[in-house]
Structure formats: C-alpha cells, structure tokens
Design goal:
This protein is an alpha/beta fold. Helix 2 runs parallel beside helix 3. The protein contains 5 helices and 7 strands.
Length: about 120
C-alpha cells in the first residue's frame, strides 16, 4: 500500500502541483486548505506524512500538529513550509514537532528526497 501524504496548503496552484508530483511518485495524496479540514482528513484517514503550510486562512498551521497530538493521530513525520526564513519561525516549527522546515519556494528534488527519507 502506498504511503499517505496530506498536503495542507491554501494555494490551489501549490496543492495541484504537489498532488500531481506526489501521485506520480507513487504516493496516496489528500489535500486540505484549513486547519479544520486537515484535522478532519488526518483523523479520518491516518496519514504517514503531512506537508504543512504554517500560514492558513483559519490560523497558524502548527495548530494542526497540536490538535493531532491531542487526538493521538500524528503522522510519522510533519514537514513545515513557510515563507518566513527567520530562525524564530524555524524554531517554533521544530518545537511544535515538525521534523523539518522548508522555506518557500521549496526545491522539489530536495522535498522529494526528504519525504523519501522520512517515510523509509
């Protein structure tokens, strides 16, 4: 069975591109654009990995990690994506439990390599 990836991102352009890329790489992909939707999807269909934008329309994407932790539904790894390259934002993501933090725009080859690493 293919590993499941949840893309949590509010940009349809990004989610469409990542969905195609990950499906072509053999992954089962779900998409959510809000915190509420991400928590619902991840508790309905357990995920192996979450690719998480930390700026979402309904708040801080790191709330997804907190809520899934409370519900005992954390994936194997959560990888954060942010447009903020400061060390404080990076540390907040790591402290919340994200395995890695990527600065947008994310290099696709590096992202796929890191996803493979975390799902191995």
């Amino acid at each position: 069975m293919a590993a499941r990836i949840l893309i949590v991102e509010d940009s349809p352009l990004v989610t469409d591109a990542f969905s195609i890329l990950f499906r072509e790489s053999g992954y089962d992909v779900d998409v959510a654009s809000t915190i509420a939707e991400a928590v619902e999807v991840a508790t309905t269909r357990p995920m192996d990995l979450i690719l998480l934008d930390i700026s979402l329309p309904d708040g801080n994407g790191l709330d997804v990690v907190d809520q899934l932790r409370t519900l005992n539904s954390l994936p194997k790894a959560t990888l954060a994506m942010t447009g903020h390259g400061d060390s404080r934002t990076r540390q907040r993501c790591l402290d919340a439990g994200c395995a890695e933090v990527f600065l947008k725009p994310v290099a696709i080859s590096e992202l796929l390599r890191r996803i493979e690493h975390h799902l191995a």
